Amino acid sequence: MLAIIGGSGLYELAELADPIRMKRDTRWGDPSDSIVKGRIGRLPVLFLPRHAHGHKVPPHRINYRANLWALRDAGATEVVAVAAVGGIATDCPTGALVVPDQIIDYTSGRDATYFDGDDGNVMHVDFTEPYDPGLRDRLVASATRLQVPVVKAGVYGCTNGPRLETAAEIRRLQKDGCTVVGMTGMPEAVLARELGLRYACLAVVANAAAGTDVNQAEVSVEAIMASLARSMTTVQRVLAEMCRATVA
Ligand code: HPA
After folding, report:
1. 183 C-alpha vs ligand 1 centroid, how far in Å?
2. Structural domain containing residue 126
3. Which pLDDT score is estimated for 121?
4. Which of 94, 128, 183, 247 is least crowded, fewest Cβ atoms below 10 Å from its Cβ?
C-alpha cells in the first residue's frame, strides 16, 4: 500500500475519499499525527502529515522512527515523501518539482536508526541508492503525463534546522553537489530503507537557498509559505495521477 507523507504546506489530501483517522502508538513513541487511510480513485492510500496538522512539530523534533513504523504497521509498503526545499542549482528555481536521486546527510542528534544494537545485533543497510528508482520513475511519469515540469534527479542536502542556512553553508552544499536543501529528508529515507519500504521524495522548491539569489538579501519564511501554498495544488494533482496510474 502507498503511503504519502505530507511536508510543510501539505496537511491533508483533497482527493482522499472515505477517510478514516487511525491513531497509532509505536514502541518508538507517537507519530507526528493520526494516520488517515482512504482512497484516491480505487487505490487505498495512507497519509501522514510530517509536521502534524497545523504545523506543530519542527524538523529536528519529528519522531521519524515512530512515523515510519506506524505507516508500516498500517500496511504501507511504499512511501512518497513530499518535502519543501530551498533551490541551490539553477535548474531548481522556486516552484520547481524535483525527484532527487541522492541525498547527503548534514543532520546531527536525530534518532537515525532502528538498529541501536540493544538486542545485541549489529546491522548495516546498503544505502548506495537512497531512493527507489521505480517509485521515482512513477512520480516523474505522472508529472510528465500532466505536463507538469519536473526535474528528474538531484541531490538533496539535509540540514538540521530549524534555522535556515548561512550563505557560506549553501556554498559548501553546492560544492558538495547538492542541488536542493531541506530539513526532513534524513533520517526519514534511511528508516524507510531499514524497514524495507520503497521510498521516494517529491521535493517542492519553495525559495532560492540562502545567498543564491542576488536580488534577495534574506530568505523570507512568509514567502516560503506563500510559495508552498501555490505549489501544493500541483503536487496533489501529480500524486492523484500517480495513484490512478497505479491501479490502471
Ligand atoms: N533550507 C532548508 N530547508 C528548507 C528551505 C531552505 O532554504 N526551504 C524550505 N525548506
Report:
1. 7
2. 2-246
3. 82
4. 128
Query: Euclidean distance between the first and final Cα of the chain, in Å?
Result: 15
**DSSP three-state, residue 2:** strand
Cβ neighbours, 10 Å, residue 123: 11
Which one of 98, 156, 207, 219 would you pick to mutate in the ligand 1 pocket, going by the greatest count of ligand atoms within 8 A of its CB? 207
Q: How far is the CA of 13 from the centre of ligand 1 (A)?
A: 22
Any idea what the CATH number is for the domain that residue 99 is in? 3.40.50.1580
Query: Mean pLDDT over residues 98-123, rounded?
Result: 94
Q: Before 162, cis peptide (omega within 30)?
A: yes
Residue 181, ligand 1, Cβ within 6 A:
yes
Q: Is 50 helix (H, G, I), strand (E, B) or coil?
A: coil
Residue type, 166: T
Categorize the per-residue pLDDT at 122 as very low, low, confident or very high, splitting at 50, 70 and 90.
confident
pLDDT for res 228:
96
Spacing, Cα 51 to ligand 1 middle (Å): 14
| Cβ of 212 below 6 Å from ligand 1 | no
Number of structural domains found in the chain: 1
